[in-house]
Every structure is written in C-alpha cells, then in structure tokens.
Write a structure and sequence with these properties.
- The chain is mainly α and about 230 residues long.
- Helices cover about 80% and strands about 0% of the residues.
- Helix 4 crosses helix 5 and helix 7 runs antiparallel to helix 9.
- The chain is elongated, with a radius of gyration of 22 Å.
C-alpha cells in the first residue's frame, strides 16, 4: 500500500500581500460582525426572556413564539430572508454586511433568549422564598438574585453559543460579504490550492475561537463574577 505525496504550496498564499490582506480583512469582518451582533442579540434576548419570566401579556406570547421560530429555522434561511425578502417587502437598500449583521443578531436573540429563560427559571426556590421573607420587591429580587444566578450558571452556554455562531458566519459569504470564508474562496479560485487554503482557514477559525473563549472568560471573571 503506497502513500500519496501531496505537493503543499503554502508559499503561494503567504508570499502574496494581496492574499494576506484579504485574510486579515476577512478576520476583521467576521469578528466584528459576530461581536456586534452578539451584543445586540444579548440585549434583545434579555428583554425577551424577561417578558416571559415576568409573564408580561402579550409580550410573553410574542417572545415565546419568536424564540421558538428562530431556533427552529436554519440560519441560512434567516439570512436569505433578511437579505432578499425584507428589501422587497419594505423597499429599502442596505449593504450586504448590514443584512448579515441583522440576520446574525436575529439568530442570537433566539438562542440567547432560550438560554436566559432557562436560567431565570432555574433560580433556586429557597433563595426566592428567603428574598420574599425579607419583603424585597420583585425588581430587587430579579436584579440581586435571579440575574446574577442566571449569568453565572448560564455563562458556559452563552459563551459556547457565541462561539458556535461565530463558526457559522462563513454562511454570510453566500450573499457576498467579504468575510474570512469569502476571502479563502477567492484565494482558492485564484491559486487552485484548495487543500492549503482550507487548512489555513481551519487554523484561523480555531485560533479566533480560542481567543474569543479566553476573552469572554477574562471579562466574566474580572467584571461580572467579582461583582456578584
């Protein structure tokens, strides 16, 4: 049984300033879109989950339907609807990166909303009973007990979901956004070094994911966890 020798030509990529600039720009676009959409999605998800927890009628029914709908439709369907469907309905024109940002934000709201809702409902009953016995109002209980417990307990799920959606941002290259995957496909179409470019993309996505993970843990340990 013989071995197949592969002629690796990574030098065709790293010797070209054009290709390196494309990869660098792709990293910036993918990372920035993920961070911004993650922050916006978390803020919206916070209110969606809170309306369910507080049973604010009819907002809680809307939030339940929204979260279930987003979690049960593929991201690429949401992306295409936002990019090609909404402009037809409302007659507006946005750049493709703005459509990608909106689609990613919408996707974040569904998954973050479900995680936060589960966290709110998992608050130990004995802590709530103790707070009620002290005659604390509902807002104080939520701010001092429910929310800290949720963020601490659900932080691994929130950070994992953030990284997972970052890893799926390659889908936005389908609508022409010059993200990291789009840069790799462009380089591949020019060099025909498919194996090499996807090895590079894999290492870049792994490195960025680890960077995001460590950054989130540092922020959590130095700010949120210390205050709680």
């Amino acid at each position: 049984m013989g071995f197949i020798l592969i002629d690796f030509r990574f030098f065709e990529i790293y010797r070209s300033s054009e290709y390196l600039n494309l990869l660098f720009e792709g990293i910036l676009i993918s990372s920035s879109l993920t961070v911004v959409s993650g922050l916006l999605g978390f803020i919206i998800a916070f209110f969606l989950a809170a309306s369910i927890y507080w049973k604010v009628i009819p907002c809680n029914y809307f939030s339940i339907c929204w979260i279930d709908f987003i979690r049960n439709t593929p991201l690429i369907v949401q992306l295409f609807f936002v990019t090609f469907g909404l402009p037809l309905l409302f007659e507006y024109v946005w750049p493709f990166w703005a459509h990608a940002l909106l689609a990613l934000t919408i996707n974040f709201t569904g998954y973050f909303g479900e995680i936060l809702r589960s966290g709110y409902n998992s608050t130990p009953k004995d802590q709530l009973e103790a707070a009620n016995s002290l005659n604390l109002n509902k807002m104080t209980i939520f701010r001092k007990i429910v929310l800290p417990h949720t963020l601490i307990k659900m932080f691994p799920s929130l950070s994992s979901q953030f990284i997972f959606i970052f890893l799926t941002t390659g889908i936005i290259s389908e609508i022409g956004v010059n993200d990291l995957t789009h840069a790799g496909l462009y380089i591949d179409s020019r060099t025909f070094r498919t194996f090499e470019i996807f090895i590079i993309l894999s290492f870049l996505y792994v490195a960025l994911s680890l960077l995001f993970k460590s950054s989130l843990e540092i922020i959590f340990n130095k700010t949120l966890k210390k205050r709680m």
